[in-house]
Amino acid sequence: MLKEFKTFIMRGNVMDMAVGIIIGGAFGKIITSLVNDIIMPVISIITGTVDFKHLKYIIEPAQGEIPELAVYYGQFIQNLVDFVIIAFSIFIMIKMINKLKAKPKEAAPAKPSEEVVLLSEIRDELKKMGPSSL
Fold first, then answer.
1. pLDDT band at 20 (very low <50, low <70, confident <90, very high)
2. Which pLDDT does position 110 carry in this prediction?
3. Which of 51, 61, 75, 96 has a C-alpha 20 to 30 A away from that of 10?
4. In this model, does residue 9 exceed pLDDT 80?
5. CA angle 72, 76, 82 (to 5 degrees)
6. Rounded distance, CA 8 to CA 3, Å?
7. Domain count, the chain
8. The overall pTM is greater than 0.85
9. Phi–psi pair at 107, nearest 5 degrees
10. Which segments does the entry list as coiled coil (predicted)?
């Protein structure tokens, strides 16, 4: 059983998946920092608030012991911005990886020049005639 486990772990796709998970976790931190530290402050200039998490639409205000009834849309906006940026970043990253992996197209062989074609025809005719005709 230990030998089978070792064989399973050492297969290429399992190792690739492990590396992908580790890099994905680190990439997630970078994107979160990009959103929280760079993009959201710029958006806050437009909206007037840095923290979207507390944005809400109050349907019914609090009355005595009854808490307010509200739709908390700020966290949704924050998650939506995170998702769009993460999706776009992954798209760009995959596009770059595919560009690096892309094999250059083999150029079609160039047409031989007229001289080469003529010499080939002469050679072929000489072969047809055989060595006795020379």
1. confident
2. 81
3. 96
4. no
5. 150
6. 9
7. 1
8. no
9. -70, 140
10. none
Which structural domain, as residue segments, surrounds residue 104?
2-133
User: Which two structure tokens, joined as six digits, stand for 23?
Assistant: 């890099």
Half-sphere exposure of 76 (CA within 13 A, CB side): 6
Using the structure block, give the residue that is written with the tokens 């992908």. 20
DSSP 66: B
* Alpha carbons 56 and 78: distance in angstroms, whole number: 13
CB 41 within 8 A of CB 51: no
- DSSP E strand stretches across the chain: 57-60, 69-71
- Residue listed under structure tokens 């080469």: 116
Backbone φ, ψ for residue 129 (5° rounding): -70, -30
Residues in the chain: 134
